[in-house]
Amino acid sequence: MLISPIHLRTLVDTLALDGHPFREAMALAGLDERDIDGQGPWIDESVFDGLMRAAMTVTGDPAYGFTASTSLAQTRYGPHALLIVHAPTLRHAFEDIRMFSPLIVEETELDMVISGEEACLLARPMGVTPDGFRFRMEWLMSLCVQLSRRAGSQEGDLLDCTFPYPAPAHVHRYETLFGRRVRFDASQGTLRFRAALLDALLPGHDRVVYDTLRLQAETLLATRYQRLDLVQALRQAVFRSLPRVPDAAELASLIGQSERSMRRQLAKRELSVPDVVQRCQRELSERLLREGLLPIKQIADETGFSSASCFHRAFRRWHGVTPSEWRER
Description:
Elements: E1 2-3, H1 6-17, H2 22-28, E2 43-44, H3 45-59, H4 64-68, H5 79-85, H6 90-99, E3 110-115, E4 118-123, H7 130-150, E5 158-162, H8 171-178, E6 182-183, E7 189-194, H9 207-227, H10 230-241, H11 248-254, H12 259-268, H13 273-291, H14 296-302, H15 308-319, H16 323-328
Parallel strand pairs: 5-6
Antiparallel strand pairs: 1-2, 3-4, 4-7, 5-7
Helix pairs in contact: 1-2, 1-3, 2-3, 3-7, 5-6, 5-9, 10-13, 14-15
């Protein structure tokens, strides 16, 4: 997965603001000043994974992801982070996180499901190693709890929090932040809370500031899609929409083109809309299978297939083996 170098810049600045040897962390991760230019080309998530692990090393804190999530450095680059701070409600904040995630990451890391009186955040953080994945999971989950507390959440409002890895040595940090209802070795990372919190007014909301920042974010998003290669723009739009599979008309609208023009440009590359969608489904399914955290049925759901049998047929067409056989290999 490709991500914006803003992630590198933010973590380096976080280390610097906390008084940690950020240059040592950069050296451990094999980075120099050119690599952390927030306006530079997008990078593979493995680069950020290396910096996250280096941050834990230089700070001596295996739970530094919790600390990094509270840093003011996150509001320095682009309007999307400030937009979340100034959102009128928790619902707006989480919707903006999802909508504008393509500004900084190819695949959204947070999704939300509402069922009756409960809401559940689903976390799919970047990271290619266990330590990097855990660091980013702690970062995301901590940020979500901070937002819920701004909305006035009390201890009983957070129903439970799950993590898809064994309990770490610093499990007490989890219990301090999330309460006693923390479970490990789960199928995925989730934060379940009372849905009534979603519409509680957040303090400090200024409508003029929020509307201005949202317009800036929308302009940046449109500009990003225009600057991207057509296939890259379509990939981001598909990843942003999954598990719901968008049709051609919706994809064209998302990237700011007419459907006819989009189809014509794809045809010149001997591609079609279903080709691009299936490539995204294939990449996401391979990633989820490698992680080994979700059952096959749930991976089929996450990648937009109508049933597990449809997923099996598609996967066998791609690889000549079943998803279970591919995972075992």
